[in-house]
């Protein structure tokens, strides 16, 4: 059993992002999944949706699971991102003072509900304390994890915004850029965005 999981809560991302993720998974990822799961429960009334992501560990407790944020680009085979141990991204592009983890991609097998259980020990306090979001919570509370590195084939489009040999580009809360058709360059010229060709076209 292989599940592909995403979370769509709040108002930031509409249904196009869900459809677009499934389009990229089906077209480029190479993953032969059994279920495509969309979590829509807004239990924590979290507009950004970052803490509602923790609910995936409560709900999906068997089989092989892989989670993707909605604001990503998938343009190549990502089967190497399927992992047995709980794995998330090394945020290698961030400055040292920032949280060095990123949860845009996560994978695990079996029951990892203990991650959500840790949050539930004091949810109100955790929502207040971890204003940077779920990444900060995991970094400071969850020690049993492994990391995807740049060599696994992903990057942040905030630092590498040209087409290169990465299979996944993370937009990191800049999903609105995914719907842009053109970009105004420093020379005041409009340039077609290279990544548009990988997206579902009905924007």
Draw up the topology in text.
Layout: E1 2-7, H1 15-29, E2 35-39, H2 55-59, E3 64-68, E4 72-74, E5 87-90, E6 101-109, H3 114-120, H4 123-129, H5 134-141, E7 146-148, E8 154-156, E9 168-170, E10 182-184, E11 190-192
Parallel strand pairs: 1-2, 1-3, 5-7, 8-9
Antiparallel strand pairs: 3-6, 4-9, 5-6, 10-11
Explain how this protein is built:
The protein is of the alpha/beta class and 203 residues long. It has one domain (2-198): Spore Coat Polysaccharide Biosynthesis Protein SpsA, Chain A, CATH 3.90.550. The protein contains five helices and eleven strands, in the order E-H-E-H-E-E-E-E-H-H-H-E-E-E-E-E. It has helices spanning 15-29, 55-59, 114-120, 123-129, 134-141; strands spanning 2-7, 35-39, 64-68, 72-74, 87-90, 101-109, 146-148, 154-156, 168-170, 182-184, 190-192. The strands form three sheets. A six-stranded mixed sheet has the order 2-1-3-6-5-7, sandwiched between helices. Strand 10 (182-184) and strand 11 form a beta hairpin. The longest helix is centred in the first third of the chain and has 15 residues, at 15-29. The radius of gyration is 17 Å and the shape is globular. The two termini are 32 Å apart.
